[in-house]
Structures are given as C-alpha cells and as structure tokens.
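Next comes this protein.

***
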Amino acid sequence: MRAGNFLIPIVVIALVGVLSSVFIVDEREKALVLQFGQIKSVKEDPGIAFKIPFIQEVVRYDDRILSLDTDVTEVTPSDDRRLVVDAFARYRISDVVQFRQAAGANGLQAAEGLLERILNPTIRRVLGSDGVTSNTILSADRAQLMARITEQARLRALPLGLEVVDVRLKQTNLPEQNLDATFARMRAEREREAADEIARGEEAAQRVRALADRTVVEVTSDATREADIIRGQADAERNAIFAQAFGADPEFFEFYRSLTAYERSLRGTNSTMVLSPDSEFFNYLRSDQGLRSEEGERR
C-alpha cells in the first residue's frame, strides 16, 4: 500500500511533465521556444513540437497577413496645398527571430508601433517629394505613389522582421480649416469660367444677330428693288394699254375715265359734292334725251 501511494504522485508528475513538453503549432502561426528569454528554437512548420517543461516557454506569432490603419497624417505636396491622408497597410511577420529581437515581448502591439513609425514618415516623404502635386495625389497617378510608398516601407521594415505587403490611401481630404477657403476659391474659379462662357456666348449671339440683321436688310432691299422694277414695268404696260385704247376709241376712253372718277369720288366717306347743275362731270349719268336736248340747245 505504501509503494502504491508513492507511485501515483510520480505518475501524475511524469504525465504533467510530458504534457508540458508537448505543444502544437497551428498552420496560421509561428512559434519561438525561449529559455530564460533566449531563443532556443524556431517552429515554423505546423504540427507537434517539444520543449523542456518548466524551463522553456513557447511564444506564438500570427503568420497571416495583418492590417494596420495608420493615424491621419498631414502632407504638403509641391504646390503647397496641405492634404489630410488616411492610409492603411497590410503586413506579415516574415522573420520571427528578427521581430522578437526588435519588438521584445510586446508582440503585435509592438509590431504596429514599429510599422507606424515607418509608414507615416514614408507617406509624408513620398507625397511631399518634388513633382508631386495635390492634383497628382487626387488623380489616377496615386497608384504609382502608393507603389513607391509600399516599396520604401518594405525596405525599412525588413530589418525588423516585418514584410509590408501593400500600402493604400483610403482618403485624401483637405484640412477643415482650409475647406472654406478652398471652396470659395473653387466657386470663384467656376464663376469666372461661367462669366467667360457667357461673354463668349454674348459675342457669338451679337455676331449672329448682326449677320441676321444684315441679311434682312439685303433681302428686303433686293425685294423692294425687284418690286419697284415689276411695278414700273406694270405701270408702263398699263399706260401703253391705256394709250392704245385711247387711240382706238377716244370716246370709250373718256367714258372709262369718267366711271373711274365716279367710283373714286362717290364713296361712303365722301358722299357729298357741291357742283353746278350744268357741270360736265355727270354727263354720262344723264339720260339720252337729256343729252340730246342739251346738244340741241347748244346748236
């Protein structure tokens, strides 16, 4: 009984020791085996691994691609128009030994701090370099700028055991204190462009209006001239017909002229005439007997 009582604790201690010496490395992580803070081995392949129980410890690091939202950074491009840039980066721990030596025991929190100190100066340096204007940052050329930022950040992060996969600019805005002035300047530029367009339109309208007025004058003048020519030809033809008719029958022509005079004088607005009874104006309105008696009296 006494031997059995001693055997149970020994088995328990041995079992705990065996379990403490075994650990599993997941395919999404890497592990370091530390002994008194010193790195003894690196476990990068997934599976079962061993360590000395109670003496060595295991520190695990995420092997997946991680993301980091950087703090909002103000940059000043070459055209001196300040911009507020909001960016994010994707990265992974490429060398756990270098990362452990650079970050110590703080893990991902230290990784984000280290990367933050690399990304913000790199963003300011690239976006503030010569030839980079605010229009360049806001245009499609920003893809090339992001590639430059990524490459420079990658080179600076490699000694820290970090691999920068990508850096992207999420938002690029003007500072709040500059928005009103910028909007006012943009409004003034648009109003100036609108005034220029209106002036050009008025000038074009005046040219079209002047051309139309000149065309109207020319067409009216040509039409008046042609009408005067036609009217003159018609009057000449009418006079020729009258002269021919007068030569053929003077009495009929005199009768026609008298009827025309009657028509023009005896109208609704002119129905009163004062004439002597023996006036020749109404000779053709009298009866044949009256005419004959008058002719007899004259004889």
